[in-house]
Each structure stands twice: as C-alpha cells, then as structure tokens.
Design the sequence.
C-alpha cells in the first residue's frame, strides 16, 4: 500500500527533534479523542510577531506512525524558519492532506511532508497527520502570535479553514 | 445462560444461506477485495428481512403512532406495539416493561436523569416511600460502576454523581481482563444506591459474573443497571434470570436498524420514576398549570416514536430467533476460539483480555507491541478487513490495561472461519511493514 512510505516509517521510528526542551514560550497538549493519540508540544520563538523565528520546537508524541512521523516532519520544516514561513508550510500541508488525492504536494514547500500525500485518500487518517500541526498552531497562538490571518505568500491565502 | 454444548456452529451451507441475507457482505472494498467485516461490535449489518420489514412499514402502514383515528394510524400503532411485544419476548420480559429510546446511550441516560429528576420537589408524590427512597440520591450515597465500562455506561453516572453530590466508585479489572470481585463487598456497601455494569465488555469480550454482582447489590438494596449492548445480540438473554433492575441495549448491534435502543426496567420501578424527556405522547392530562404523566412505557417515549425502526428491530429478533440464539453463541464462540488460537501462534501479538473461550463473547482485542493499532488497522483495511481500532469508547479500561489503544475483531452470526483466516493472514504483513521482530 502507498500509505506507509519509507520516509514515514523512518520518521516514526526515529522522530527528529523529539523530546521536551527548555526554554519555551508556550506548551500545548493535544489529543485525538477518537484514538487517544496525544502530543505535548513546545515552541520557543526568537523575535516578534509573524517575523519571529521558530528557535525550537520540541515535543513528546504518543500515537500512530502517521501522527508521529508527521510531527517529526513538522519539526524539520519549521525549526529555524519564520512564523510566516511556518504558516505557509502548514497551509500547503493542510491543502495536500485535505485534497482527497488531487494534490500530491510540493517538496519545496513541505519537504518530507510530500510522503503524506497518500494519507489524503484516507479521510480517517487526516486527523492523525494534522495532530502535531494543529498543536503547533495552537502553541503559536498561545505564544502571542496573531495567526488569525492567512500567510501572505500562500497561494490559497483566502481559503484557510479550520482543521477538519 | 445458554447451553452452548447442545448447539453447534453453523455448517458451511447454513453460513452461506445466512450470508446471502446480507447484501453488503458481497461487496468489495479497497480496489476489489472481498469485504471481511469483523466490526459487528461497533455495528452489525442488517439482513434483507429487517430492511424489508422497514420498507413494508413505510410503504403500507406509515403513520404517526398513538395519534389519529384513521386506519393507517391504527395499523401503524398495531405494528409498533406488536414490535414491542416481539422485542420484549426476545429478552423474556412483558411488553409494558420495554421502553424505546434512540439508542442504548439514551436508555442509560434515561435512568440517570430520571433519578436526578426524582430529587425535584413533589416528583415522587404518591409513590410508595420505600420505593421512592431507592431513587433518592445525594451526598453520602454512592454509585458503583466498573473500570470496564463503555463511556455510555460511565459518563452518565459520573454526571449523575456530579449533579447529586453522590460519590462514584468502581470495581477494578484484573490483569487478564476480568472484573476483580475480591473487593466486591468493600466497593458495594450500604451506601451504594446504584450498581451499573456491563454484561459483556465491548473491548475484551469478557462475560461478567452477573449473579455475584446482582446478589451483592440486592443485599444492600441498590438498583442494578446493566449495559447489555454486547450480550443481547450474541447470547440468549433473559431479564428474569439475570435479576437486574434495568437493562439497556441497542438495535443496530443486533442486526436491527440504527436509531432505536431499548430500556427494559421492572415495571414497579418504571412506574415510580419521573420522566426524562417530556412532551407529546408521554402525558395523561395537560393543563396550563401542570401535567400528569402516562403510565410506562409511554411515560418515557415523548414525541412521535421510531415505529419503522421498532418494526425492523422486531424483524431482527425474529431473524435471530430463527437462527437460534444457542447456535449463534456456539458459532461465534468457535470463531473467537479460532482467532485466539491463531493469535497465540504469533508471539508478536498480545491479546488484551481473556485468552480462552470461557466467559468470552464475540470480541477479541489485541496489540502488536511497537505498532500503533491505527497502523495495524490500516494494514488490515488494505486487505479488505474491517476491524475497530482505538479505545472503543472505553478509555479507562485501556488505561488500566496499560495500552493506549487496541485493535478489536468482533463477530456476528454471518462471520466465518475463513474470515478469521483472512484476518490472520493479513496480520502477518504487519511485522514486515513496520519492522517488528518476529
């Protein structure tokens, strides 16, 4: 089956940037109530507002291969990048995951996230893949970042909606 | 209790005939693979006889029951009330003790909210004080449940405890997935007013020792409420034999339609209880100043009831009766034992709950250590095999068994040994995909 790409299995077995670290501006705990998957996630920002840089994203994830790997890819893709860029990446990831197979993802935008293209054909698993990303968005908000407007560079800037 | 020793599993010919009644079983999934449906614990499929009964009701008798004097209204009311008789007979009860609800969850909430409502001023006026006292719940009183409960028989009691000031206590689970009755006498005490427990675990398939729990509850005068969702579809259930006071089950898990559940209760208890939902149908006399209520079961059936679903559920009872509940039990036990034997040959699989067929009905939960159940379920799904993954609405049970989630295969009369084989074969792909040592 095309769901479990080697990249996904690698990330799930050896998640990047895993563990909870200090210091952090915000910590959140998200749960997928249908399966009991959990992620505790911290962000440390450097700078102000959307131009701030994600200095560190640390986490402890308990879940399936899809959710664990996706959180690992999230950490890879946003650490060291500006919040604005991170929100653009998130928008692209979400666009692919909710496309029901029509969007295979752009490696330039989401890196290893493209390995999750197959997930979009399994609606029940989209939540798994978005668990860490939803937690990250929440953590940004709790760190005081305004996430209410879509990223300016996003091609679908006007269509950002709630995570399904 | 069913004597399964006198009954046998269905023959290949019988199985083929049964499967022929379920159109959905002949469809394919995930790119042309035959559907292997092992998720009847979540919801069962419905035979043609049930669908035909619903269709016939709508095409020939459709009308709002207990309303109007035209011929269709009479026919619809007759169909609805005779369905009640069939369903009541199926569990060994008189029809007037059977209340229709939208599902088992609502049936359990009905009891919990009726107990809350009994605390309102004047709610128990005219009720025998001894009987009324059984429904009086407050600070110092205790509600006992088990750690094995589905959330439907757990959250309503937590909430009732919160509303009433009563304390919630629970019977624990042993490492092998059975209720720990060692401390039964210390958990169920003179302070206990309600004991709510499941007949069969929806996750582990454990059949609980009803007699011991009921005996202890009776000794302290507590009301007993049983979640029978996983027993009525699989075992011959007789409410008189069980000795409980209330029993709830859903239609859709027993080959019946969605949207209908049943609360059975002893008549004198139902007659003492204030209503839960109020409105049309459940009244005796309505004046602007106040309302008196109809006798049970109507008192608990506000609004136009689900007549077509009741007719469908009665058809499901007839279907199961024709198969013979002892044979349904024996057949499902043979599948459970075959699955347990197959899993035992795979040391990388760990069964959660009883590992033999004794006191074990229709469901087997397991984990592959190192692989999340969602991922196990995905591999099975890819082979056309439908199982349930997650915590199956029994989160505390999973916490107690030290697992975040499980994969559960559950059976119905239409399943076969070759489907158990298909599950085992597909399961063998899991270690390779996820790099688990075997």
Sequence:
């Amino acid at each position: 089956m095309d769901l479990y790409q080697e990249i996904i299995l690698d990330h799930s077995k050896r998640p990047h940037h895993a563990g909870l670290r200090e210091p952090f501006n915000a910590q959140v705990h998200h749960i997928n109530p249908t399966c009991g998957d959990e992620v505790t996630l911290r962000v440390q920002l450097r700078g102000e507002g959307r131009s701030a840089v994600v200095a560190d994203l640390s986490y402890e994830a308990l879940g399936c291969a899809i959710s664990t790997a996706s959180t690992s890819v999230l950490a890879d893709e946003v650490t060291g990048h500006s919040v604005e860029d991170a929100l653009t990446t998130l928008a692209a990831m979400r666009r692919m995951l909710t496309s029901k197979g029509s969007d295979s993802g752009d490696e330039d935008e989401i890196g290893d996230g493209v390995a999750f293209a197959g997930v979009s054909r399994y609606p029940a698993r989209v939540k798994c893949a978005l668990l860490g990303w939803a937690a990250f968005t929440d953590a940004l908000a709790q760190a005081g970042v305004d996430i209410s407007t879509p990223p300016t560079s996003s091609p679908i800037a006007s269509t950002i909606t709630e995570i399904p | 209790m069913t004597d399964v020793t006198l009954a046998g599993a269905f023959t290949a010919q019988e199985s083929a005939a049964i499967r022929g009644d379920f159109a959905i079983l002949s469809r394919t999934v995930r790119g042309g693979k035959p559907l292997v449906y092992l998720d009847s614990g979540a919801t069962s499929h419905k035979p043609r006889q049930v669908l035909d009964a619903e269709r016939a009701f709508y095409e020939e008798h459709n009308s709002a029951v207990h309303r109007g004097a035209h011929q269709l209204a009479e026919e619809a009311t007759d169909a609805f009330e005779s369905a009640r008789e069939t369903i009541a007979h199926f569990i060994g009860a008189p029809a007037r003790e059977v209340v229709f609800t939208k599902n088992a969850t609502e049936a359990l909430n009905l009891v919990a909210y009726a107990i809350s409502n009994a605390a309102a001023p004047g709610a128990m006026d005219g009720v025998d004080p001894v009987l009324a006292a059984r429904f009086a719940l407050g600070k110092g009183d205790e509600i006992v449940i088990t750690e094995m409960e589905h959330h439907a028989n757990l959250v309503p009691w937590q909430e009732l405890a919160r509303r009433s000031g009563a304390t919630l206590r629970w019977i624990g689970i042993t490492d092998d997935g059975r209720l720990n009755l060692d401390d039964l006498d210390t958990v169920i005490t003179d302070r206990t007013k309600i004991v709510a427990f499941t007949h069969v675990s929806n996750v582990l398939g454990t059949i609980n020792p009803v007699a011991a729990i009921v005996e202890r509850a009776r000794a302290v005068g507590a009301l007993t409420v049983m979640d029978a969702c996983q027993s009525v579809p699989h075992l011959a259930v007789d409410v008189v034999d069980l000795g409980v006071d209330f029993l709830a089950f859903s239609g859709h898990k027993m080959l019946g339609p969605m949207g209908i559940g049943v609360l059975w209760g002893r008549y004198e208890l139902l007659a003492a209880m204030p209503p839960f939902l109020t409105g049309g149908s459940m009244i005796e006399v309505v004046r602007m100043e106040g309302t008196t209520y109809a006798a049970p079961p109507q008192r608990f059936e506000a609004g136009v009831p689900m007549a077509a679903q009741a007719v469908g559920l009665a058809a499901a009872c007839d279907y199961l009766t024709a198969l013979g509940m002892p044979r349904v039990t024996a057949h499902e036990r043979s599948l459970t034992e075959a699955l347990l034997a197959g899993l035992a040959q795979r040391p990388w699989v760990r069964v959660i709950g009883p590992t033999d067929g004794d006191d074990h009905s229709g469901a087997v939960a397991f984990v592959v250590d190192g692989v999340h159940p969602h991922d196990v379920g995905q591999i099975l799904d890819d082979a056309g095999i439908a199982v349930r993954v997650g915590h199956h609405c029994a989160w505390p049970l999973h916490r107690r068994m030290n697992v975040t989630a499980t994969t559960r295969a559950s059976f119905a009369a239409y399943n076969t040994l070759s489907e158990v084989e298909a599950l085992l074969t597909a399961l063998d792909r899991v270690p390779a995909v996820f790099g688990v040592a075997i």
In short: The mean pLDDT of chain A is 90.
